[in-house]
Amino acid sequence: MAQTPSMTRLIEQLTRLPGIGEKTAARLAFYVLRAERQYAQDLASALVAVKDETRLCSVCFALTEADPCPLCTDPTRAADTICVVEEPADLLAVERAREFRGRYHVLHGALAPLDNIGPDELKIQPLLVRLRDGSVREVILATNPTAEGEATALYLARLIKPLGLKVTRIAHGIPVGGDLEYVDVMTVGRALEGRREVDA
After folding, report:
1. Rounded CA gap, 26 and 148, in Å?
2. Cβ atoms of 154 and 110 closer than 8 Å
3. Strand, helix or coil at 55?
4. Cβ neighbours of residue 32 closer than 8 Å, sequence gap 6 or more
């Protein structure tokens, strides 16, 4: 079956999404074509709504439709602990674990000098402003375990420690269900560094 111009255009747009190749884009496009018209309208409406209604929280810079966001206004969350993450998707990953009940700060990236991403391109200054009000006692640096994430965590630690706050870094180690023989050397080293006493 020859592709129509509208189908070609849809496939081209889908391939612009990260991780979507031409075959996957074609499969998605054909799914939309076979689905009820209402589904296509709902999908289009959801895409436009997310662009029109989603913005950054003025406090933590998470994605939100209300400003400040529900996490910043939740009175049950501890205001004395801030978890710093690189991207909004990282915040969602921490929330899924259901272990952290404090507040967040989203940097919107990590330091990457080769890509011209320095401190001024990240939400670092607003973080420092938040830390100066005296209500925060601990900052958890939950940047990714990449070269850029590590550099960002080190940079932030050097800025935050002089404020007299406790600065911690999330542990990195062997994933649950992983085999030691297949884990890279750096991860094994980090797991050994972050070892803790076993409760008997």
Report:
1. 34
2. no
3. strand
4. 10, 39, 40, 43
Phi, psi of 181 (to 5 degrees): -65, -20
Q: Is the pLDDT of residue 34 over 70?
A: yes
pTM: 0.82
Q: What letter would DSSP give residue 112?
A: B
User: Which pair of tokens denotes residue 195?
Assistant: 């070892």
Residue 182 DSSP code? G
Distance CA 78, CA 136 (A): 9
Evaluate whether 61 touches 106 at the Cβ level (below 8 Å): yes
Per-residue pLDDT tens over the stretch 41-58: 999 999 999 999 999 999
* Closest of 62, 65, 87, 89 to residue 77, by C-alpha: 62
Q: Which residue has the tokens 């849809």?
A: 10
